[in-house]
Amino acid sequence: MMTEKRTALVVDDELPVRALLVRALSEVGFQCVESADGEDAWEQHQRAPFDVVVTDLKMPKMNGHKLCVELLGASTRPIVTVLTAVRHERLNQDLQQRGVDLIRHKPINFRTLARELRSLADEQSSRRTSLPDADSGDSSGETRSSASKPRQAKHNVGLLLHQTQMAEELAADISDESTACFATSSSEQLCHVLDRQRIDLLLIENNLGGFMTGLEIVERLNQQLIRPKIVLLSDLDDKTVQQADEIGVEIVAPVNTDRTELIAEVRRILRDTTEQDAFIPPLARHLVKDFGAIPPLPQLVVKLAGYLAMPINEIPLNELADDIATDSQATTDLLHITNCGRSMFEQTTSILQAVNLQGAQNTISQVMSMATMRAQSKVLNQWNEAYRQWYQKRSVIVAAAGSVFADKFEHCSPDTAYILGLVQDVGCLVMANKFGSRYDRIVKRVQEVGRCQLHQLELESFSIHHAHVSAALLQKWNLPQSLVRTVVAHHDVDGEDHLTKSDASYLRVIRLAEAFANSMEMPHPYRNFQLSQFLSRYTDFSHDERMAICGEALQRARHLCEVFEFPVPDELELEDILQRSTVPI
Q1: What is the pLDDT of residue 139?
Q2: Which among 137, 173, 534, 572 could bridge 512 via Cys, Cβ 3.0 to 4.6 Å?
């Protein structure tokens, strides 16, 4: 018998509907409050947050859609349910992508809905007692979203076994002060949790006694761009082992594996997991998952990205040259870049010689950048000419400035910073394609109003920003987590706090490079002040030295525009902007 009281807010402009739903919810233990419009409902939730909010869509003052957006972005996020007579597939998809928990259509059996909501509320309460709060955090400052903030525990482990009691006992044994472990009772509950927090390892049984096997659930998570390390408990037949290997399962262990041995194996994997994967908001993942306008990067590029993490003296040049030689487009790109500006007698047709002339890391960054630009070209061509030029120029300035700032200020790899600069804004293309004229208006406002910041306007309109979407796309491309982590965090106020020392260096570089690009785009006092603030942090350099480094970044940007055949910024105009943007503060 359910005795613990939950609170529910019922929002509908029709009194009979409110009365029937309140009666049904009260029968299953909810204390209910009614509201006839979205504005009043939002004010009531802010005063005293509810466990559950059920809302209609068509209402006066504030409609149900806007109310849902506000509730989903709140630090005290309730279970959000839409109950409407409107049946519209695109609207349903939009609500689901934003994170609405349930969508139900009138007419409906109110008692059935009430039982469903009670079950959801009890599930959520149970998770909260065993998990850190997935939706807590500061919702002010640069971003309202707390989605990319890491958990308090160093590692998060999830369990889904056929026997729920066994899963709960095992979760208790695995949990310690550095590991938060939770057991789920169904694939739906697992997905619900993973849409709200990062997970490092999933221990899952293959035979769950339901419609889906453990392997099928793992495959679906992969498609949703959720890719924790996997320990699969299963019969060790050849077909299962092969399928597990194909989808990246870390370990396949027999179902009857001794519990002590299993716990030791989980802890070994966590001990070897020195860096956490990024948590990407579910709406950003959903946008990217089915987005086909930007094609996958060639497998070569994914492999080259792995070389970037290696010390420069350990990158095997012969192997690197052989890898590039297998891709005709990469071969053409590298030879074109290497021979550009050389006399006919100095030009080469040897990939290995080109690699030696360019250097290993520069070779990798050049091949990756050309492939990235090519992947973006299809969707770029669909965008308005003015916005296309804005995006291209901005990307090149961020990449160029980032490579120089990484080398001079942070003493980290300029080639990695260069790649980060090129890809950190790619989410803009996905959002422009998905949101159309709404997104164009945001870009136009950023171009015209100096105090406006792109990511803040995106958050206000869509509850995610382009860095979230960029990170999801990098995840889809299987690029290294070091790139994904830096991209997803670089607009968060405390983004640097939870990164490794190396990743934090690149985050500072990208922030400075973006401030530099913003000032180049519009010499507004606010943007100039931001750039000066970022530069002033490098106290080991005098103002004149910082000015000289910015001048070098400027020249690098002009050169890159020529290489990619983009409109070249006017040199005198940019130097004048630079002078005004880097005054001492």
Answers
A1: 35
A2: 534
CA gap 499, 28 in Å, rounded: 45
pLDDT, tens only, 529-563: 888 888 888 999 988 898 889 888 888 887 777 76
Residues of the chain short of pLDDT 50, as ranges, are 1-2, 129-152, 585
| pLDDT at res. 73 | 78
Residue written as token pair 């992947």: 375
CA 122 to chain centre: 29
| β-bridge pairing 155-160 and 79-84 | unpaired
What residue has token string 């500061």?
138
**Burial, 30: exposed, middle or buried (Cβ in 10 Å; 0-12, 13-18, 19+)?**
buried
Distance separating alpha carbons of residues 418 and 399, to the nearest angstrom? 5
DSSP annotation of 150 reads P
In the chain, count H helices and then E strands: 27, 10
**Hey, what's the torsion of the CAs at 212, 213, 218, 222, to 10 degrees?**
-50
Helical H segments across 359-413, by residue range: 360-380, 385-405
DSSP 35: E
Residue with tokens 């990098």: 474
Residue pair 148/488 in contact by the 8 Å Cβ criterion: yes
Provide the pLDDT for residue 4: 63
Residue whose entry in the numeric block shows the structure tokens 């021979």:
339
**Distance (Å, whole) CA 181 – CA 168:** 9
Cα three-residue angle 450-455-458, rounded to 5 degrees: 105
pLDDT at 440: 92
Cα gap 254→250, rounded to integer Å: 14
For 37-189, strand residue ranges (E) read 52-55, 79-84, 102-105, 155-160, 179-184
At 211, the amino acid letter reads: F
Q: How far is CA 242 from the centre of its chain?
A: 30
Assigned token pair, 348: 């080469």
- pTM for the model: 0.58
Which residues does 251 contact at the CB level (< 8 Å), separation at least 6? 230, 231, 232, 265, 269
Question: Mind listing the pLDDT tens digit for each residue in 153-189?
Answer: 567 888 999 888 888 888 888 888 778 888 888 887 7
Q: How many CB atoms lie within 10 A of CB 237?
A: 9
Taking CA atoms, 394 is separated from 33, 139, 265, 508, 520, in Å, by 50, 28, 47, 18, 9
